[in-house]
Amino acid sequence: MLREAAPEVEALELELLLEALLQRYGYDFRGHERAALRRKLRAVMQRRGLRTLSQLQDRVLHEPAAASAALRALHVPPATLFDDPDEARQLRQLAGAGLRGAALPRIWLADCAGAEQAWTLAIILAEEGLLEQTEIHATVASDELLAEAQDASIAPESMARYQAAYVRSGGQGELSRFFTASGKRLALAAPLRSHITWAQYNLVTDASFNEFNMIVCRRALPDFGPLLRQRVLHLFHASLAPFGILGLDRAIDATDALTAQYAEMPQPGWCRRIA
After folding, report:
1. Strand pairing partners for 6?
2. CA angle at residue 90 from 89 to 91, to 5 degrees?
3. Which residue, 26, 215, 261, 272, is most buried by CB atoms nearer than 10 A?
4. Smallest Cα–Cα separation from 88: which of 272, 271, 267, 273?
5. What is the pTM of this model?
6. CB–CB of 192/123 below 8 Å?
7. Sign of CA dihedral 95, 97, 98, 101
8. Are 158 and 187 in contact (CB under 8 A)?
9. Which residues, 6 or more positions from 5, have their beta carbon under 8 angstroms from its beta carbon?
10. CA distance 41 to 84
11. What are the pLDDT digits (tens) for 169-226?
């Protein structure tokens, strides 16, 4: 029976695979936490019947389907509508504080978890009477994820499950009123979709591209290593308007960049820029 790779060998294999992903496809995961990377890649290996990261690297370099599977696993997992009721309730509470008073409010969903996360935000803003004047900028890490988000739809039979999650998040009425038929599936109604702008964007390498009144990045940050986290927090600071609101995976603390320029808000993981 073949033995698994020794830990020190697997560590080397992981670094070589990360370098391969960067050199071959341009995606840099070298600043991510190694434990998270190993967990995600081992799941890919198990699904594809592979024993080592070196075998996965060989497939990634030579088989587009394997490369797509690995990259998809390493990017933010896709969300479903109102799948985080706590976050949705917090957004309902914070939206007015962050957006009212701005001439043209902008929200950035950085490393967005797909169409349904952006749709959830659009629905919340519509219910709070804020969507009409607000722009949502949703960015994803790859062209493949971008195409999926722009063409997204949901199965009608999923609506009952989504309705229950919507109610748990504080929604009232029928969630289906925000959707229209798209063939045999459902898509967010055009008046809501028109307020969402999708773009491919790389948090690791790209610069600030606009000023925002609210930035939300709660799902990607837990996988970032310390240096990458600080780089991204500096990027968010350069992109956040004075008194804008920042949504993170955890409360900002002394180890984070520019801590003194933010004040914690009552909602966990949220803070306001004060300087």
Report:
1. none
2. 90
3. 215
4. 267
5. 0.95
6. yes
7. positive
8. no
9. 13, 51, 52, 53, 54
10. 25
11. 999 999 999 999 989 999 999 999 999 999 999 999 999 999 999 999 999 999 999 9
